[in-house]
Task: inverse folding
Protein backbone atom coordinates (compact mmCIF):
# COMPACT_ATOMS: atom_id res chain seq x y z
CA UNK A 1 0.00 0.00 0.00
CA UNK A 2 1.21 3.54 -0.73
CA UNK A 3 2.50 5.90 1.91
CA UNK A 4 0.72 9.25 1.87
CA UNK A 5 1.03 12.51 3.78
CA UNK A 6 -1.60 13.11 6.46
CA UNK A 7 -2.16 16.18 8.62
CA UNK A 8 -2.27 15.58 12.36
CA UNK A 9 -3.81 18.19 14.68
CA UNK A 10 -1.93 18.75 17.94
CA UNK A 11 -2.17 21.04 20.91
CA UNK A 12 -0.64 24.34 19.82
CA UNK A 13 2.95 24.59 21.00
CA UNK A 14 3.35 20.81 21.32
CA UNK A 15 4.36 20.12 17.71
CA UNK A 16 8.02 19.29 18.50
CA UNK A 17 7.05 17.16 21.52
CA UNK A 18 4.50 15.26 19.40
CA UNK A 19 7.16 14.64 16.74
CA UNK A 20 9.64 13.31 19.33
CA UNK A 21 7.04 11.17 21.13
CA UNK A 22 5.72 9.80 17.84
CA UNK A 23 9.26 8.87 16.71
CA UNK A 24 9.70 6.90 19.97
CA UNK A 25 6.31 5.17 19.56
CA UNK A 26 7.15 4.21 15.96
CA UNK A 27 10.39 2.62 17.17
CA UNK A 28 8.68 0.90 20.11
CA UNK A 29 5.97 -0.62 17.91
CA UNK A 30 8.41 -1.50 15.10
CA UNK A 31 6.48 0.59 12.57
CA UNK A 32 9.48 2.26 10.87
CA UNK A 33 8.46 0.78 7.50
CA UNK A 34 4.85 2.02 7.85
CA UNK A 35 5.34 5.53 9.28
CA UNK A 36 8.33 6.92 7.42
CA UNK A 37 8.48 10.71 7.92
CA UNK A 38 7.27 13.46 10.23
CA UNK A 39 7.49 17.14 9.26
CA UNK A 40 6.67 20.40 11.03
CA UNK A 41 6.35 23.14 8.37
CA UNK A 42 8.56 26.11 9.35
CA UNK A 43 9.92 29.29 7.84
CA UNK A 44 12.76 31.64 8.76
CA UNK A 45 11.65 34.91 10.32
CA UNK A 46 13.73 37.92 11.29
CA UNK A 47 12.94 39.61 14.58
CA UNK A 48 14.25 43.07 15.33
CA UNK A 49 15.32 43.28 18.96
CA UNK A 50 16.07 46.31 21.11
CA UNK A 51 18.81 48.45 19.62
CA UNK A 52 17.99 47.31 16.08
CA UNK A 53 19.70 43.92 16.45
CA UNK A 54 18.28 41.33 14.02
CA UNK A 55 17.64 37.79 15.16
CA UNK A 56 16.78 35.02 12.68
CA UNK A 57 14.78 32.07 13.93
CA UNK A 58 12.50 29.30 12.71
CA UNK A 59 8.75 29.83 13.15
CA UNK A 60 5.98 27.30 12.61
CA UNK A 61 3.91 28.06 9.52
CA UNK A 62 0.86 26.15 10.84
CA UNK A 63 0.92 26.05 14.65
CA UNK A 64 -0.97 23.04 15.94
CA UNK A 65 -0.33 20.84 12.89
CA UNK A 66 2.23 18.14 12.05
CA UNK A 67 2.56 16.27 8.73
CA UNK A 68 3.04 12.50 8.87
CA UNK A 69 3.90 10.31 5.88
CA UNK A 70 2.51 6.87 6.54
CA UNK A 71 0.64 3.87 5.27
CA UNK A 72 -2.83 4.27 6.76
CA UNK A 73 -4.21 1.20 8.51
CA UNK A 74 -5.76 0.48 11.91
CA UNK A 75 -2.39 -0.07 13.60
CA UNK A 76 -0.69 3.07 12.27
CA UNK A 77 -3.81 5.15 12.94
CA UNK A 78 -3.74 3.94 16.56
CA UNK A 79 -0.01 4.64 16.98
CA UNK A 80 -0.39 8.23 15.76
CA UNK A 81 -3.79 8.98 17.31
CA UNK A 82 -2.75 7.76 20.79
CA UNK A 83 0.43 9.84 20.89
CA UNK A 84 0.39 12.38 23.73
CA UNK A 85 -0.58 15.84 22.43
CA UNK A 86 -2.36 14.58 19.29
CA UNK A 87 -6.01 15.61 19.08
CA UNK A 88 -6.76 13.84 15.80
CA UNK A 89 -6.31 13.66 12.06
CA UNK A 90 -7.57 16.31 9.66
CA UNK A 91 -10.22 14.81 7.42
CA UNK A 92 -13.87 14.53 6.57
CA UNK A 93 -16.46 12.77 8.77
CA UNK A 94 -13.76 11.54 11.16
CA UNK A 95 -11.78 9.82 8.39
CA UNK A 96 -8.21 11.03 7.78
CA UNK A 97 -7.79 12.61 4.34
CA UNK A 98 -4.38 12.35 2.67
CA UNK A 99 -2.79 15.46 1.16
CA UNK A 100 -2.39 15.69 -2.59
CA UNK A 101 1.22 16.07 -3.72
CA UNK A 102 0.50 19.65 -4.84
CA UNK A 103 -0.84 20.53 -1.37
CA UNK A 104 2.24 19.04 0.30
CA UNK A 105 4.51 20.97 -2.09
CA UNK A 106 2.73 24.25 -1.29
CA UNK A 107 2.99 23.66 2.44
CA UNK A 108 6.66 22.65 2.34
CA UNK A 109 7.61 25.25 -0.33
CA UNK A 110 8.83 22.71 -2.85
CA UNK A 111 8.30 22.74 -6.57
CA UNK A 112 8.65 25.62 -9.01
CA UNK A 113 6.92 28.89 -8.24
CA UNK A 114 6.46 31.75 -10.66
CA UNK A 115 8.78 34.72 -10.25
CA UNK A 116 6.43 37.29 -11.71
CA UNK A 117 6.07 40.14 -9.19
CA UNK A 118 2.62 41.22 -8.11
CA UNK A 119 1.53 44.58 -9.48
CA UNK A 120 1.69 47.47 -6.98
CA UNK A 121 -1.69 48.42 -5.61
CA UNK A 122 -3.22 50.44 -2.85
CA UNK A 123 -5.80 49.31 -0.37
CA UNK A 124 -8.37 51.50 -2.13
CA UNK A 125 -8.28 49.12 -5.14
CA UNK A 126 -9.35 46.21 -2.95
CA UNK A 127 -12.61 45.47 -1.21
CA UNK A 128 -14.11 42.77 0.99
CA UNK A 129 -15.42 39.80 -0.97
CA UNK A 130 -12.81 39.91 -3.76
CA UNK A 131 -11.09 36.64 -4.65
CA UNK A 132 -7.29 36.77 -4.39
CA UNK A 133 -4.29 34.50 -4.76
CA UNK A 134 -1.40 34.69 -2.31
CA UNK A 135 1.74 35.30 -4.40
CA UNK A 136 4.49 35.31 -1.76
CA UNK A 137 5.22 34.16 1.76
CA UNK A 138 4.47 30.81 3.42
CA UNK A 139 0.98 30.60 1.88
CA UNK A 140 2.06 31.35 -1.71
CA UNK A 141 -0.26 29.80 -4.33
CA UNK A 142 -3.21 29.53 -1.92
CA UNK A 143 -6.46 31.22 -2.97
CA UNK A 144 -8.75 33.10 -0.64
CA UNK A 145 -11.30 35.85 -0.24
CA UNK A 146 -10.70 39.29 1.29
CA UNK A 147 -12.66 39.72 4.50
CA UNK A 148 -11.21 43.07 5.66
CA UNK A 149 -9.18 45.90 4.12
CA UNK A 150 -6.93 48.09 6.29
CA UNK A 151 -5.86 51.09 4.14
CA UNK A 152 -3.98 52.75 7.00
CA UNK A 153 -1.50 49.83 7.19
CA UNK A 154 -1.76 48.66 3.55
CA UNK A 155 -2.80 45.20 4.74
CA UNK A 156 -5.74 42.92 4.08
CA UNK A 157 -7.27 40.06 6.00
CA UNK A 158 -7.87 37.10 3.70
CA UNK A 159 -9.84 33.94 4.47
CA UNK A 160 -7.67 31.08 3.18
CA UNK A 161 -8.75 27.44 3.23
CA UNK A 162 -6.03 25.58 5.13
CA UNK A 163 -6.56 21.88 5.81
CA UNK A 164 -10.22 22.25 4.89
CA UNK A 165 -10.89 25.15 7.28
CA UNK A 166 -11.22 28.84 6.48
CA UNK A 167 -8.44 30.60 8.35
CA UNK A 168 -8.03 34.40 8.56
CA UNK A 169 -4.56 35.53 7.47
CA UNK A 170 -3.25 39.11 7.52
CA UNK A 171 -1.20 39.91 4.41
CA UNK A 172 0.47 42.94 2.91
CA UNK A 173 -0.81 44.23 -0.42
CA UNK A 174 2.22 42.96 -2.35
CA UNK A 175 1.49 39.42 -1.11
CA UNK A 176 -1.87 39.17 -2.93
CA UNK A 177 -3.04 39.27 -6.52
CA UNK A 178 -6.66 39.73 -7.58
CA UNK A 179 -8.12 36.68 -9.36
CA UNK A 180 -10.18 37.38 -12.43
Result:
Amino acid sequence: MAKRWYVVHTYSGYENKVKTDLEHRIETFGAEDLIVDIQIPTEEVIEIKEGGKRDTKEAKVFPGYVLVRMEMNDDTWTIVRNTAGVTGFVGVDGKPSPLRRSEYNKIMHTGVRGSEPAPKRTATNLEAGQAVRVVSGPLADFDGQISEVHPETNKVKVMVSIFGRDTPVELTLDQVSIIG
